[in-house]
Amino acid sequence: xxxxxxxxxxxxxxxxxxxxxxxxSSSRLLVLDKKSGEIKHSHFYNITDELxxxxxxxxxxxxxxxxRLYGCREDTGGAIEFLLLSKKSLNxxxxxxxxxxxxxxxxxxxxxxxELKAEVIDIVNDGxxxxxxxxxxxxxxILQKLGEMPLPHYITHKLDDPDRYQTVYxxxxxxxxxxxxxxxxxxxxxxxxxxxxxxxxxVTLHVGLGTFRPxxxxxxxxxxxxxxxxxxxxxxxxLINNAKKDGRRIISVGTTATRVxxxxxxxxxxxxxxxxxxxxxxxxGKKFNVxxxxxxxxxxxxxxxxxxxxxxxxxxxxxxxYETAVREKYRFFSFGDAMFIH
Length: 342
Known about the structure:
Layout: E1 28-32, E2 39-43, E3 56-60, E4 62-64, E5 68-73, E6 79-87, E7 92-98, E8 108-111, E9 116-123, E10 129-135, H1 139-146, E11 172-175, H2 187-195, E12 199-205, E13 228-232, H3 234-245, E14 250-253, H4 255-265, E15 274-278, E16 293-297, H5 304-313, H6 315-327, E17 338-341
Parallel strand pairs: 1-17, 3-12, 3-14, 4-11, 14-16
Antiparallel strand pairs: 1-2, 5-6, 5-8, 6-7, 7-10, 8-9, 9-10, 12-13, 13-15, 16-17
Helix pairs in contact: 5-6
C-alpha cells in the first residue's frame, strides 16, 4: 500500500517563494534523469540545452480569473468571502465560502455596491456551495472590477503585478490557480525554442483548487480528486499523434497539461479532439501513455502533485531530488524554481 507519509519531505518555511523573480526565466532548473536518478543544476533560460529538434512541448493556456470576492450578507451585513471554483452554467458557480455557516441555501449576498448579488442554492461535496449570481452587463467585466487574484494560501502578501500570476500565453478564462510550471517562460524563450525546431501545442485545463487539496487518506488510493474542465483541440491532437508515430518526445509543461494528455490518452491512439471533466489521479504504478518528459515546479509534501511526478520518475528519485533541492536552497511552490524530468 502506498501511504501518504511516503511522500512527505521536510521543507524549511524560508524556501517557500513569496514573490516571483524579476525575470521569469532566471529561476533555477533541476534536471532529473528518470532512469538513472542523476541530477544536474541549471537555470531555466538554459532549458533549450535539454530540448531536441522534433520535440513537442505542450502548454496549458488557461487564464486565472480574479476569483476571490469579498462581500456581505444582504440582511445582516455580515462579511463573507467567495472563491469561485468552476462555472456550472451561465450564472451558476461552485464556490468555496468563508465562513461557511453564513451561507445556507436561500441566503443572499452582495458584492461591490450591490452590482453583483448571489443566492446560495445548494451545498455540495466538501461543503462547497452552488450559487446563482445576479448582475447587469457582462459577468467577466464585473469580476475584473470586484475580484482579486486568488493566490495560494502559502503566499502571504499581495502581488504588485497580478499578471505575474499568469503565464505569458494565458488565453482562456477559467482557473482558480495558475498552471505554475508555465510561469518561467518568456515570449523570447518560446521564440528561441520554436526556432530550434521544437513544436509547441496548447491544451486547456481550468485549474480548480482540488489540485491543491491535501490528501487526507493514509492509503492514497482512497483519495478522491475534484473534477476540472479540459479541452484538447484537433490541432494539438494531430501534433502529438504525428510525433508519437515518429518516436519523438512529448514534453508536458506542468501537471495540469499532463492530466489533460493522460486523460485523453487513456483510450489509446490516435488522440482526437476532446473536452469534458477529468478527475484523473496519477500516482506510482500508473502508466503514462502520452508524455515522455515533464517541466514542473516543486510541489507540497504529501500532495497529489508530488505523487504524479513520483509516478513518472520513481518515488525514490523524486524524494532524493527534493532533498537535494532543499539542501541547495531551491525556491519552492508557485513562484519557485523548476524541474525538468526526462
